[in-house]
Amino acid sequence: MRRINAKILVPAALVAALLAGCTATADAADTTDSTGSTTTTSDANVTVEQAMAANTAPDDVDLTASGDEVAIDLDDPTASDGVTVDGSTVTITAAGTYRLSGTLADGSVVVNTADDGVVHLILDDASLTSSTTSPLQVLDADQVVVELVGDNHLSDTTSYADTDEASAALFSTADLTITGDGALSVQGNANDGIAVKDGLVVAGGTITVDAVDDGIRGKDYLVVSGGSLDVAAGGDGLKSDNDQDETLGYVEITGGSVKVTAGDDGIAARTDAIVADGTLTIVAGGGHGTTVAEDASPKGISGTVSVVVGDGQLLIDAADDAIGSDGVVSIAGGDLTLAAGDDGVHADNALQITDGSVDVTTSYEGVEAGLITIAGGSVNVTSSDDGVNASDPNATGQQAPGGTASTTVGLTITGGTIVVDSGGDGLDANGFLTMTGGTAVVNGPTNDGNGALDVDGTFDVSGGTILAAGASGMAMTPGADSSQSFVAFTFSSTQAAGTVVHILDADGTEIAAFESSKDFTSLVYASADIVSGDTYSAATGGSVSGDTVGGLAAAGDSGGSTVATTGTAGQALAGMGGGGGQGGGPGGRPGTRP
C-alpha cells in the first residue's frame, strides 16, 4: 500500500507494475516506512499511462446542458422552479440547467440539493461579488458543471466566518467540472481562488485566478484537460492534497495552457504530478534568483510520490527545485526548460529520462536522485555544483576516501545525450556508474577540489562515449577493468576555453575532436574506438567539423595542431573517491535540504 509520509519512496501500485513488467537498473532495495511496513523500491521506469492507471479516474460527467434551462437574472433574481431567493442569497435546490447572467453586487449563489444528477450552471456574462462569504458555492450536489459563456467574474470576502463552510471565491463540496468557451476571472481575497473538496476537472474556458493562498485546489484530484489558466497565488498555484487515499491527491495535466506565478509550489500534488501534454509556464517563489526563508522550498512541480512527464512544453523557474519528488521522477518526453535555485530535477529515490529534451539552464545541482537512469532524450545541464549527482538521500555527509560505496545508489546511462557544464563534479555517483550507450560530454570544474567524473563505486563503460574535461586535481577514469577502454590526458598547463583538442591514435588518425567551453587541464575519453594498451595523443589547435554534442565531434581539421600530451589507454585514474570541495554528498544548497 502506498503510504503518504515523508519517507515514502515509490507508490505501491507503480511498484507492482514495475516489478511485473519493467527491469530495474539497480538491485531493488527494501525501505521501511514510519508505520513499520517494508516497501520494495525499484527504478523510475514509470509511464504516464501507468501513473494514471494507479489512480482513481474522474467520474464521467454529462457536459450537455438540458433544453429546459432556468434563467437567473442576477440584477433582479426571483424564485422559480428549483430556485429560492432570500435577500441577496440565491439558492439552487434541484438538479438541472441554470443560466446566470447580470451582476450580483453583494450576495451569493448557493447550490444545495440532494438530487441525483448534474447541476449545470451556465455563467453567461455573470459577475458575482460577496463581502461576507463565497459568491458561488456548492454545499451539496451529486455533480456540478460550470459552463463559461462570455466574460464572468467572481470575487469573495477578505475574511470568512469560522462557521462558514465555504472558503474560496468558487467553492464546491461536490465533483466540479469547468468547461465552455468563455472567460472567468476569480479573485480569492481571503484564501483560495477555486477550491473543491472532491475532484476538479478544468476542460475549457479562459480562467484567470488571483488568490491570497492557493490558486486552484481539487482535494481528491485536479485535472486540466483543456482551456487556458493564468494563476497568481500567494501559496501553491495548482494543488491536490488528499492524504487519506493512496489513489487520490494527484494533479494531472493532459492539455491546455497553464501559467502559474506562485509564492510556494507551482504545482503541488500529495501523490502524483502527471504532465501528459499541454503548455506550462511556472514561476515559483520568485524564481531561481530569489532568496527564500530557510523553512521554505518553493518548487516548480512537486509530487510527493512521483512526478511523471510524458509530453508537453514546460518552462519552469523555481527558487528551490524546478521538479521535485520525495519518490520518483520519470521524464519520457516533452520539451523542458528549467531554472532552479536548487536542483533542476530532484527525486529522493529514483529518476529516469527516456526521451524528450531537458535543458537545465541554471541550478545548484542539475539532476539528482538515489538512482538515476538516462536512457534517451537530450539532457543539458548548467550547475554551480554537481551536474548529475546520484546520491543517497539519507546520507548525512560525504563519502570518505577509501570508504565503502553504496551498491544501491548510482547512475546508469544507456542512451541519449548528456551535456554538463558544472562548477562542481560533472557526473557524480556516490555508488556505481554504468554506461552501455549514449553520449556524455562534461565541461567540468576548473578548481582542483572537484572532478569532471567522480565515482565512489564500480565505474564500468561497455558502450557509448564519454568525454570529460576539467581540472586535473581529482581527475578520474572508468575502472581499469572497464569493459570498454579509455584514455586520460593531463596537460602541463591550463588549456583555455575554446581550445580544440584532437584525439589521435598511434598512426596519427583522428578519432575525435573536442572544442572546450571552459578552461581545463585534464581530458578523459572513452569510446569503442579506444584500444587498451595503445598510446594516444592529444593535439591542440585546428577546428572541429560536422555535428557536435557539447563541443564533441567525430572529426575535425587538425592542420596546424600541436601534440600537447599523450596517454596510454586503460591506465586508470582513481581521483580521490567520495568527492571533494562542494561535491560528493547528497545535494541541496547550503541551508535548503539536509
Poorly predicted ranges:
1-42, 577-585
What composes the largest sheet?
Answer: 16 strands, parallel, barrel
Query: Strand order within the widest sheet?
Result: 8-10-13-16-19-22-25-28-31-29-26-23-20-17-14-11
Radius of gyration: 28 Å
Total of DSSP H or I helical runs spanning 4+ residues = 2
- Let me know the number of strands: 49
Average pLDDT across residues? 90
Structural class: mainly beta
Distance between the termini: 27 Å
Q: Helicity, in percent? A: under 10%
Instruction: Choose one word for the global shape.
Output: elongated
> What portion of residues belong to β-strands?
over 45%
Keywords:
2 helices; 16-stranded mixed sheet; mainly beta; 16-stranded parallel barrel; 594 residues
